[in-house]
Write a structure and sequence with these properties.
- The complex is a heterotrimer.
- The radius of gyration of chain A is 11 Å and the shape is globular.
- By secondary structure, chain A is α+β, with helices and mostly antiparallel strands.
- The two termini of chain A are 15 Å apart.
- Chain A is built from 2 helices and 4 strands, in the order βαββαβ.
- In chain A, a hairpin with a 2-residue loop joins strand 2 and strand 3.
- In chain A, the strands form 2 sheets. Chain A has a two-stranded antiparallel sheet. A two-stranded antiparallel ribbon of chain A has the order 2-3.
- Chain B is of the alpha/beta class.
- In chain B, strand 7, helix 8 and strand 8 form a beta-alpha-beta unit.
- In chain B, helix 2 crosses helix 8 and helix 6 packs across helix 7.
- Chain B has 13 helices and 10 strands.
- The radius of gyration of chain B is 19 Å and the shape is globular.
- Helices cover 39% and strands 20% of the residues of chain C.
- Chain C contains 13 helices and 15 strands.
- Chain C folds into 2 domains: 184 residues, Thiamin diphosphate (ThDP)-binding fold, Pyr/PP domains (Rossmann fold, 3-Layer(aba) Sandwich); 114 residues, 3-Layer(aba) Sandwich (Rossmann fold).
- The chains are: A alpha+beta, B alpha/beta, C alpha/beta.
- Strand 2 of chain B pairs parallel with strand 9 of chain C.
Chain lengths: 66, 281, 384
């Protein structure tokens, strides 16, 4: 079983379509300057919905380092 | 440094891909990669990376073959299924996945689609069905709904659209399913089922083309188009729990047909054995 | 082992030769006068552990052959005029992606449905220029059933060696003719195996060639190589490129791999040409009538010889040029409106006048017509 995860964003891969932000169940993401970022105080629960629907593979979950 | 999946199963040197911002194709390509990864990682399943071949035709969808890190062949317009038939028939031990679009597989390649389905040859066809010709700039395709606009239908499309999954099922496909860009997890599962199915499988995945189809038809951007899929396309468990009345304007995301019939290359192998036994070789 | 002599049709000899060459995959669509090739493949391939499939159309047949070939199997399709037209796009794919295969075209009278299935050699130029864009072509044309057997083996050998589709340009005359054929001992045959190389890992430079070489080794699918094949202009790694220099280098290499190996590829039959002042140029089934006419002309005292291209593309230009100093005239005889004629005229330049005898009504050209033409040419020369 996988352990705890964290969200990683690579703005270089983001084309700013906004899909991740629109379908984030916690409304934790936003597009600023045509790039995605975590909202200030945004509560990401590492559910992976954004990774699953990002057409450009600009954000993903990684295992939290111990 | 993108995710492990992208590193491992996509050709990172050739990414980011050429598709527009918000194009559903990127989501569907990921579904395919995840489906393959999960099958390859599953020790119970005989899918191996080295024995998987990805075949595509021409169009936006068909660029996907070059991005997936497997043996891959980007063929001619409409002929992906015919090339794939040659590959599968020559090497039945290979897992052959065809990535195609609505135009590629149901217009110029429609004949190959129905005949591969009829033969029940063990290919897995995933359509990136965006209702439009994207690569050439927004002409109507065989799945463009009647009345919708395209650059070659400036006054509205007169044609009636194909339902590609039903077309394949009618032609004898033994596994057909429908997915959507929005329903990524469900679609991934359907692709996995299609790959594991022995015989011809087709997973018709509704993509979104915000650049041409969306703009021409006032459907908004990628978010609005995925929102439409979220509201109008319903995974099987929910769909079958709904009343017939409630289903009327909904589309099922799930398996449409699933039957077991002899697979073509296995039948041919049996034929070869029969012939060789008769000729005493 | 004493060689076996059996009665065989040209189309059947084509299949037997192909099987001897190692062909184990056939995809086709029925069309007269090539259909016997598909029928015999359907019967024979399962016996030798090969595979036959009748596809839904000609386009699919060509595509399936290319698909099979990338898995490492020697593959063939067979067709006739209308089907040859339909296969052209994918033949071009095979040229660009460098996928070996043999395409048999048993020519019939065209254009369109034409005169099915009367003999013709009307696809000569199509064999060269049928697909769009500049591309390399090798085409071979047999003139007897015996030669069909041997030459189709050569077609496979050249296809494998140069990693390119080879057109086997038969005609109805040879395809449907029955003759005694001596089948050689399989051990005597030279069969080119595919030049295969493996790397340890993925996405290597699968189209790279060592300095001074032109043909990259091929890697079959399903071996963990994980490489890409495309019909787009590509770099040495097999991925699409828009770089004009890289694309230009690719196209140049594709042409040069043929052009720089003409000595190996081009074959002709030259008969009684050493003292001849007149050469009859003729290929395929029609060359039999030409040979007969040449022999009769010799009996009448005319100094006539036969020049028969066996490799019809690339046209044996150097071979013909070498004969020009002794020649006063050339007669091109072909079963069409004048196609190879253009190549002969180009090769002869203004040095030797070229006359033409052709036919497009679906009937064969009899030796007497050729003889009459030769007499007429000789008479005109004396009248001058």
């Amino acid at each position: 079983m996988t352990g705890r995860k964290k969200l990683v964003i690579d703005p270089a891969w983001c084309k700013g379509c906004g899909i991740c932000a629109a379908f984030c169940p916690k409304n934790a993401l936003e597009i600023a300057g045509e790039k995605v970022r975590l909202k200030e105080g945004g509560e990401c629960v590492a559910c992976g919905a954004c990774e699953m629907r990002c057409p450009d593979y600009a954000l993903w979950l990684e295992d939290l380092e111990e | 440094m993108p995710s492990e999946l992208v590193h491992k199963y996509l050709r990172i040197d050739h990414l980011p891909h050429i598709w527009c911002a918000g194009c559903g194709n990127g989501i569907i390509m990921r579904d395919v990669a995840v489906a393959l990864q999960e099958l390859i990682d599953d020790p119970e399943v005989p899918v191996s990376r080295d024995k998987t071949v990805v075949v595509s035709g021409i169009g936006c969808s068909s660029r996907a073959a070059g991005y997936l890190d497997f043996d891959s062949i980007h063929t001619t317009h409409g002929r992906a299924i015919a090339f794939a038939t040659g590959i599968k028939f020559a090497r039945p031990d290979l897992e052959v996945i065809v990535l195609t679009g609505d135009g590629d597989c149901s217009a110029i390649g429609g004949n190959h689609l129905i005949h591969a389905a009829r033969r029940n040859i063990g290919l897995t066809v995933v359509t990136f069905n965006n209702d439009i010709y994207g690569m050439t700039g927004g002409q109507y395709s065989p799945t463009t709904p009647t009345g919708d606009k395209a650059t070659t239908a400036p006054y509205g499309n007169l044609d009636r659209p194909f339902d590609i999954a039903q077309l394949a099922a009618g032609a004898g496909a033994t596994f057909t399913a429908r997915g959507s860009a929005y329903h990524a997890r469900e679609t991934t599962e359907l692709i996995k089922q299609g790959i594991l199915h022995k015989g011809f499988s087709l997973i018709d995945v509704y993509s979104v083309c915000p650049t041409y189809y969306g703009r021409k038809n006032g459907r908004g951007g990628p978010v609005e188009m995925l929102q439409w899929q979220k509201e109008h396309m319903v995974p099987a468990a929910t769909y079958y729990a709904m009343s017939e009345e409630a289903r009327r304007d909904k589309t099922l995301v799930g398996v449409l047909t699933h039957t077991e019939n002899p697979e073509y290359t296995e039948q041919y192998a049996a034929l070869v054995e029969r012939v060789r036994a008769q000729s005493g070789k | 082992m004493t060689p076996k002599r059996i009665l065989m049709q040209g189309n059947e000899a084509c299949v037997e030769g192909a099987i001897a060459a190692g062909m184990r995959f056939f995809a086709g669509y029925p069309i007269t006068p090539s259909t016997e090739i598909a029928e015999r493949c359907a019967q024979r391939l399962p016996q030798v552990g090969g595979r036959f499939i009748q596809m839904e159309d000609e386009l699919a047949s060509m595509a399936a052959v290319l698909g099979a070939s990338v898995t490492g199997v020697k593959a063939m399709t067979a067709t006739s005029g209308p089907g040859f037209s339909l296969k052209q796009e994918n033949i071009g794919y095979g040229c660009l992606a460098e996928i070996p295969c043999v395409i048999v075209d048993v020519q019939r009278s065209g254009p369109s449905t034409g005169l099915p299935t009367s003999p013709s050699q009307g696809d000569y130029m199509q064999a060269r220029w049928g697909t769009h864009g500049d591309h390399p072509v090798i085409a071979l044309s047999p003139s007897s059933v015996q030669e069909t057997y041997r030459l189709v083996i050569r077609a496979f050998n050249l296809s494998e060696k140069y990693r390119t589709p080879v057109i086997f340009l038969m005609d109805e005359i040879v395809g449907h003719m029955r003759e005694g054929v001596t089948l050689p001992d399989p051990r005597e045959l030279i069969i080119n195996k595919r030049h295969i190389s493996y790397h340890d890992g993925a996405n290597k430079q699968c189209y790279a060639v060592p300095e001074g070489e032109y043909v990259p080794a091929m890697k079959p699918f399903g071996q963990g190589e994980r490489y890409n094949i495309t019909g787009l202009a590509h770099d040495v790694s097999g991925f699409p490129t828009n770089n004009n220099q890289i694309a230009g280098a690719l196209y140049t290499r594709l042409m040069e791999k043929i052009d720089r190996n003409l000595d190996d590829i081009v074959r002709v039959e030259e008969h009684m040409l050493d003292d001849a002042d007149t050469a009859v140029v003729c290929f395929g089934g029609t060359a039999r009538a030409a040979m007969s006419a040449v022999q009769q002309a010799r009996a009448e005292g005319m100094k006539v010889g036969l020049f028969r291209p066996i490799t019809v593309w690339p046209f044996p230009e150097a071979h013909l040029r070498a004969r020009l100093p002794g020649l006063k005239r050339i007669l091109m005889v072909e079963h069409n409106y004048g196609q190879m004629l253009l190549e002969v005229q180009r090769s002869a330049a203004d040095r030797v006048p070229v006359s033409f005898l052709g036919r497009v009504d679906g009937t064969v050209i009899p030796p007497d017509d050729i003889l009459r033409k030769l007499r007429e040419m000789e008479g005109n020369a004396h009248a001058k």
